[in-house]
Give the backbone structure.
Amino acid sequence: MAVDLIQVKPGQKILDVGCGVGGPMRAIASHSRANVVGITINEYQVKRARDHNRKAGLDALCEVVCGNFLQMPFDDNTFDGAYSIEATCHAPKLEEVYAEIYRVLKPGSLYVSYEWVTTDKFNAEDEEHVEVIQGIERGDALPGLRAYSDIAEAAKKVGFQVVKEKDLAAPPAEPWWTRLKMGRLAYWRNHIVVQILSAVGVAPKGTVDVHEMLFKTADFLSRGGETEIFSPMHMILCRKPMS
């Protein structure tokens, strides 16, 4: 859906902002036959993404660059389109990454982003709401979740025209958080396995702590979804004006 929204054609050059190990990149390259350039600040992710691209036979269409999406090593007006999926939420200031994306896009090109946000149901005076949101921020290393109303404002501030905005996680969409739920029995089973692997040196030091953190974070995410105070799929489609 992302690549269809930005209306790219085979052979065009598009940007994946915060590509990670390139899952969306490969799906989009395969679907569109466009040339996708991904940027991630993590060198390990660059290596993994390149390995996956090669194994998928898509390394001719997919390029991965190690860099900071707040200071991208690309010329102005380079790309025919751009997208970011659950990535720009890691930017301390959304306007800064949006401004960089705006800079490297060709005039008239489209950009779509899926943002992590608090919804209109979030109440900053509700202690449980605050606990859940802070748990998500802490567990996912976020500088602070933004309100859904801040996204379009940030895009307009740097010059984008907002074409469409929609929370793709809102009903009647199927609950996205159910896959994160894990029963206590399953958790303790996995925890014991992780402890054994760590004790014999198969799993690196710190794996047990990371497993515990991920379990707690999954719980906060599930609670955020169930109460509808959090969405990981607030979609915004923007256009860089022709002039």
Notes: The chain has a mean pLDDT of 94. The first helix runs from residue 2 to 5. The domain at 2-123+140-170+229-240 is CATH 3.40.50.150 (Rossmann fold). The CA atoms of residues 172 and 228 lie 13 Å apart.
